[in-house]
Amino acid sequence: MQKASVKDKVTKLLGVNSLDARLSLVFIGIAFIAFLLGGILGLLQGLNRAGLLELPAWLNYYQVLTAHGVLLVLVFSTTFTIGYFYAALSHTLGGLLPKVRKMGWVALGLMVIGVVFVATTIIRGNASVMYTFYPPMQASPWFYVGLVFLVIGIWVTAFGAFINVAHWRKNHRGEHLPLLAYFATGVFVLLFFGSFGVTAEVLYILPWAFGWTDTINVILTRTLFWSFGHTLVNIWYLTAVSTWYIAIPKLIGGKLFSDSLARLVVILLVILNITGGFHHQIIDPGITPQIKFMHVFMSLAIGFPSMMTAFAMFAVFERAGRKKGAKGLLGWFKVLPWGDVRFLAPMIAMISFIPAGAGGIAQTNFQLNQVVHNTMYIVGHFHLTLGVSVVMSFCGAVYWLVPHLTKRVLTPAMNKIGVAQTIIWTLGMTLMSGAMHWVGLQGSPRRTSYTTYGDNATALGWDPYLFLLAIGGTLLIIGCILMFYIVFNLMFLAPKGETEFPIAEPEEDALPTPKWTERWTMIIVLMLAVVAMAYVIPLVDMIFNAPPGSPPFRTW
Prior knowledge:
This protein has a single domain (16-545), classed as Cytochrome c oxidase-like, subunit I domain (Cytochrome C Oxidase, Chain A, Up-down Bundle). The protein is 72% helix and 0% strand. The protein is built from 20 helices and no strands. It is globular, with a radius of gyration of 23 Å. This is Cytochrome C.
């Protein structure tokens, strides 16, 4: 016990473990390389979708769309999440165990192998199936082999996190796991258990992709995918939320609103998350209305921890503002550090989540979902949630996390560039996502390249909105380039110095956190029980009362 305590003090004094920092920095570096490449592909896709760019014969729209989705939805978000939370575990738990650090490098190697398989098949034009990789469209079998490596890599990082947390708990009996490590535990629990469905799907697809079986159960594969796909979205969200609770109060001179509330948010998102997948399948045949209604309720239930977070964060803002002398109903709003990009970027992320979350709730409604499901509205919603709420939170964390890990500092000049990047990105995403939402309501379909449908009057009416989409995409690539430069600067060029890892402290009169929040076995059992309630009956029905299987299709 004494040794662990001394180790904690030494780690806190030194600020960062260089071996742990190197691992996190490589993950984060790969994340922003994928971010830049995905942004370039996104620009090509947007210009083509607006009818302003004709892609060469060797690079079709669906190839670009698949690569864009894989790079940003899978590679960028996952590698940043792992790098960020491994840095968090290192900082809050007294360093990573040597074997956990080795597991992190092994996982990185497995994920790189997976990306090479996936990227090669996409580049060769053999996997233009988009990141959802729905059957009956069939990619090269090596595309799915690459996905297997990616999932195994994710599992290795999750087990590494669990080992490190278990070691800390063993040496700190009776203590609460530090809040940031608590968020990390919740995220890795979701990454591990949430990926079971997509793993089963990929293993089911592989014999079909290799030609060993002739047909495949399409509705089963879609259901298995969305048990993971929906969870993945909320893994990014939970990662973003952790930066809101942990870092922002410290950066603005405030305090953590409630440790207990923050842990309850994690618990609710872990228990309720996986079961929301069916709301992506509301219009799918082969699923009974009763099952769909149950999943709609579960999807809506996820809104409660989001509202708890909104209440907690605005309470933090108001209390911090009043400590600085703010008066009146909204006087606190004026004294927030809007010129500090470490605050500005995640604050915009939080504000954007209000319409993004409301749009998500609207889509969970049966009737509204049928109106917008296969339209650009969904793409706009996705870009608002991932492209602003998540990306701006991740970028906000970069401004203090990367300098902390590299023992450098964020200079006033780089802060100004960061503010400019944040404004450009926000304006670009507002134009693009707003145009996507509106043109989707006009009936413009998603997942299709540009076409006028034979100069149909309705299709021609979409063109002005698609032009706004292209303008937004152009601004976004500028934001991508600036962000990549900022990350590079903070890693290699910024002046040497000490940057704090901002950890918010609780209020002086805060109530003690209940002990039951540490019972992870109970939390996981409840999660599995809810998942079983949601999925066992429909999956059994899909397997034993399967519709006729589908042969493979190649639509590109």
